[in-house]
């Protein structure tokens, strides 16, 4: 049997489909009556065009919502934001239908086009909104009544955690928390929360607790003295598909980091697993593929020249393959033009330095203009990399970085890239310390990922290449 939340998503999707069918049926009748001066009759629907459209049009609407709105847990959807999203997507969808279908209609006056578009928009928007608001209101009432909840873990057991728990427990309406217990955050707590919840373990037990208790949300309610442990806690939680919520301080509130979904809910910073909306991820992937294919085709004369120069520069293969760690920690082989002598790493893994003696003369030229990176377009086409994303590293260096900066794992939530904000702002790293400094920019990129930011980074990368400011 499907969980109630999956049933809710299915009901929401079916509701959109039925709403689109109802809206198109009413529109088809209105068009027959207004455009062809027919008296009202259900027999007007006895038209092959109607039977085709009554299936195809709703499917198209559902696909549009899937890409740009996404079907997700209805118990987490804001009704207010849904109104504006439905308004915007209804307008976009109607414009597409207008130019694809309605513009071919026979009309007696140009003004009739405006009438057709306006009627379809109003019918679709209000019909869809009625279905959505009804479903979301029922979902909200189920959430308030405690019929639906999320398995929740609190990290921290002292005053801060107790105050938070009591604030949530005192609410007249429940807001979805189904507390399974709490975790001792420092090992020496008085654990005042024991009067209310079960102690499930310590910080090192979090992975086991999340699996055993099927935790869906984690609230970090540690004391100020334990804030030094926050990075490690977050690093552990990033490995799991859970919603993370943190009690903010006044600086977080003033900086606008606190987002409220419930007027009467507790004040928390929410960190969701999803980084980019689905439609942006799709567009980003399309941009990656198109730009990489065009890059390999348009630069083919340059690639051929580089191949010849690499062959003449020293003995060894033209391409250099090296294992790197990619999306979700999956290893892959990155490909470059070989810029070093074949015995460059006989002494073990090393990072490149300025004026590196291991580079061939031609290799140094390629690295300055970043020509050695061009074959990575192939990694992008294969889906192992993106044009923009944190630079992939070897496991040998990742292990060293994680010891000092556990939040490096956050970088593994996205595809690595040929270029990155860290590389544009900081350049290549010659040692682990420089990697840690570059990490700040890569984390900022992930927290602010968008298509606009990717385009900016690509523009700055081109500028860096033109100026010859590579390593």
What does this structure look like?
- The protein is an alpha/beta fold.
- The chain has 3 domains: 4-144, no CATH class; 150-271, Rossmann fold; 278-466, no CATH class.
- Helix content is 51%, strand content 10%.
- The protein has helices at residues 4-36, 48-68, 79-100, 111-144, 159-169, 206-212, 230-237, 250-254, 278-298, 300-313, 361-369, 376-382, 395-404, 421-426, 432-447, 451-466; strands spanning 150-155, 177-184, 199-202, 217-220, 243-246, 269-271, 319-325, 331-337, 386-388, 417-419.
- The strands form 3 sheets. It has a 6-stranded mixed sheet with strand order 3-2-1-4-5-6, covered by helices on one side. Strands 7-8 form a two-stranded antiparallel sheet. A two-stranded parallel sheet has the order 9-10.
- The longest helix is centred in the N-terminal third of the chain and has 34 residues, at 111-144.
- 29% of the residues are buried.
- The model has no long low-confidence stretch (mean pLDDT 86).
Secondary-structure map:
Blueprint: H1 4-36, H2 48-68, H3 79-100, H4 111-144, E1 150-155, H5 159-169, E2 177-184, E3 199-202, H6 206-212, E4 217-220, H7 230-237, E5 243-246, H8 250-254, E6 269-271, H9 278-298, H10 300-313, E7 319-325, E8 331-337, H11 361-369, H12 376-382, E9 386-388, H13 395-404, E10 417-419, H14 421-426, H15 432-447, H16 451-466
Parallel strand pairs: 1-2, 1-4, 2-3, 4-5, 9-10
Antiparallel strand pairs: 5-6, 7-8
Helix pairs in contact: 1-2, 1-4, 3-4, 9-12
């Amino acid at each position: 049997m499907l969980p109630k939340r999956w049933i809710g998503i299915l009901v929401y999707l079916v509701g959109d489909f039925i709403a689109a069918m109802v809206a198109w049926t009413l529109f088809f009748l209105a068009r027959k009556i207004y455009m062809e001066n027919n008296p009202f009759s259900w027999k007007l629907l006895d038209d092959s065009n109607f039977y085709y459209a009554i299936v195809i049009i709703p499917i198209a609407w559902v696909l549009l919502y899937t890409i740009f709105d996404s079907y997700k847990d209805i118990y987490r959807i804001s009704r207010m934001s849904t109104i504006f999203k439905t308004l915007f997507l209804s307008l976009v969808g109607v414009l597409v239908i207008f130019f694809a279908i309605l513009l071919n209609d026979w009309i007696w006056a140009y003004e009739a086009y405006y009438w057709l578009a306006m009627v379809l928009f109003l019918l679709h928007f209000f019909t869809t909104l009625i279905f959505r608001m009804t479903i979301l209101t029922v979902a909200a009432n189920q959430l308030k009544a405690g019929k639906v909840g999320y398995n929740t873990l609190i990290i921290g057991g002292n005053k801060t955690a107790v105050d938070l728990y009591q604030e949530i427990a005192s609410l007249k309406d429940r807001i979805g928390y189904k507390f399974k217990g709490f975790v001792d955050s420092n090992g020496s707590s008085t654990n005042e929360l024991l009067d209310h919840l079960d102690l499930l373990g310590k910080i090192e037990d979090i992975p086991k607790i999340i699996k055993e208790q099927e935790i869906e949300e984690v609230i970090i309610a540690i004391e100020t003295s334990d804030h030094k442990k926050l990075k490690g806690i977050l690093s552990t939680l990033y490995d799991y598909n859970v919603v993370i919520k943190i009690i903010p301080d006044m600086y977080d509130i003033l900086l606008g980091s606190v987002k409220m979904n419930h007027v009467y809910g507790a004040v928390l910073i929410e960190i969701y697993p999803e980084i980019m909306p689905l439609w942006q991820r799709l567009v980003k992937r399309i941009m990656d593929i198109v730009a990489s294919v065009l890059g390999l085709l348009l630069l083919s004369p340059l690639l051929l020249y580089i191949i010849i120069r690499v062959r003449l520069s020293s003995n060894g293969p033209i391409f250099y393959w090296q294992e790197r760690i990619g999306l979700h920690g999956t290893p892959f082989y990155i490909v470059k033009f070989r810029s070093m002598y074949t015995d460059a790493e006989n002494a073990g893994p090393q990072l490149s330095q300025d004026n590196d003696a291991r580079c061939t003369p031609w290799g140094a030229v390629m690295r300055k203009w970043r020509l050695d990176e061009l074959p990575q377009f192939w990694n992008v086409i294969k889906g192992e990399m993106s044009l923009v994303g944190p630079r992939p590293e070897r496991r040998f260096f990742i292990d060293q970085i994680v010891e000092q900066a556990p939040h490096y794992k956050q970088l593994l939530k996205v595809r690595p890239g040929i270029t990155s904000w860290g590389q544009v702002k900081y350049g290549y790293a010659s040692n682990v310390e420089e990697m840690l400094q570059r990490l700040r920019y890569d984390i900022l990129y992930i927290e602010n990922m968008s298509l606009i930011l990717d385009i900016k980074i690509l523009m700055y990368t081109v500028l860096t290449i033109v100026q010859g400011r590579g390593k």
